[in-house]
Amino acid sequence: MEYVLVKAINNNVVLVREPGTQEQLVLMSKGIGFGGRPGGKISDDRGGEEVIKFLNNSGQISSRIYDNEEIKSVVRTIASSAEKKLAIKNKNFYPALFDHICFAINRVQFGVPIENPFINEISVFYSDEYGEAQKAVSTVKEKLGINLGNGEAGFIALHFHSAKSNTPVSASLKDIRILNEIVKIIFKDDRQLLSKNSPAVRAFVLSASSIINFSGGHHPFSMPPECGIAAALPESRAVAESINGMVLNEKGRALSQGDMDFLTVAVEQLRQQLPDGG
Questions:
Q1: Which of 95, 107, 97, 86 lies closest to 13 in space, CA to CA?
Q2: Would you call 267 helix, strand, or coil by DSSP?
Q3: Contact at 8 Å (CB) between 221 and 211?
């Protein structure tokens, strides 16, 4: 649907009205206000991008919007700390982080919850980035009085990891989703084991990620057939088969026989470190 732009509050929040009426709405979406002019058209069709809508209650906007320069100063502090602590060298890091934190602040200001279903995985697998992201959330709270919450710390950690590895945030999120599925396969209903055994789990995930990504580069691992890994470790092989099915579903390719052998060994190493053998 198309609306008439009343005012662009910032790049992520606009005040609009429905054509032919005086009813005003607030639309929130990344970049929705960029370049907008009063009286122009604003569409809620953002090509799959989330658009949050709610009625503009009297005085709601003016009391909840921070000056961009205030936020820029805070984000510069956060970016500088992360660059030093995580050795980030990425020219796009600050602009992307600024846009992300602005949008997160807008969500909290307007009462839209920030939920992160992968927070446990992020805190374990990207522990350095997550620790720095928690500092970032504390800085926002201290300087602006806004509590972004633990879930947002996880999303900021993904931005840190993406900048550090020079990969898109979407790729980091996809990797976390895959790791989340691997954790579900291994731990089933007892997800607390993830935190209790985080060093062992992190070591396993690094091994599994290496095997999966190395295979994706068309350079599969090879294991001498006389090792008989599948026959020697049937329970771990079954877990590896489940992981392979998930990789096929997510990445559209299956692991080679050699990849499967190395993954089976990695699963077995993890199982032997867990209570009751996993």
A1: 107
A2: helix
A3: yes
| C-alpha–C-alpha distance, residues 136 and 121, integer Å | 19
On whether the CB atoms of residues 3 and 25 are closer than 8 A, the answer is yes
- Is residue 83 helix, strand or coil? helix
Cα-based angle 232, 237, 242 (whole degrees, multiple of 5): 170
Residues 6+ apart with CB under 8 A from 241: 260
Instruction: Retrieve residue 46's tokens.
Output: 């953002």
How far does the chain reach from its first CA to its final CA, in angstroms?
A: 52
Instruction: Please count the residues of the chain.
Output: 278
Q: Position 264: which residue type?
A: T
Each of the 278 residues of the chain gets a pLDDT tens digit; together they read: 888 888 787 778 888 888 877 778 888 888 888 888 888 888 888 877 788 887 766 555 544 566 778 899 999 999 999 999 999 999 999 999 999 999 899 888 877 888 898 888 898 889 899 999 999 999 999 999 999 999 999 999 999 999 999 999 888 888 888 888 887 887 776 656 666 667 888 788 888 888 887 766 566 678 888 889 999 999 999 999 999 998 888 888 888 889 999 999 999 998 888 766 55
CA pseudo-torsion sign 226, 230, 234, 236: positive
Are 106 and 13 in contact, with CB atoms under 8 Å apart?
yes
Q: What share of the chain is helix, strand, coil (3-state, %, to 5)?
A: 60, 10, 30
Q: CA-CA distance, 1 to 35, in Å (whole number)?
A: 19
The whole-model pTM stands at 0.74
Name the DSSP letter for residue 252. S
